[in-house]
Design goal:
This protein is 43% helix and 0% strand. The chain is an all-alpha fold. The longest helix is centred in the last third of the chain and has 14 residues. It is flat, with a radius of gyration of 16 Å.
Length: 56
């Protein structure tokens, strides 16, 4: 059963992408090595987009 407290807790207001929910779990890039061309978050957004919409 939803209560006002749980609605606020699980609300997605202001969140644009699915990765906004998992952003704290995405690791930061290492200082050594070649810099990343794309962020891990952008890659995850692309994967979620393909899973959601499929490939025509």
């Amino acid at each position: 059963m939803w209560t006002p407290t749980t609605r606020r807790q699980y609300s997605r207001d202001g969140l644009r992408y699915e990765t906004d929910l998992i952003a704290p779990l995405v690791p930061e890039p290492h200082a050594r090595g070649r810099p990343r061309r794309w962020s891990t978050r952008e890659i995850l957004n692309a994967i979620f987009y393909v899973l959601r919409s499929g490939i025509a």
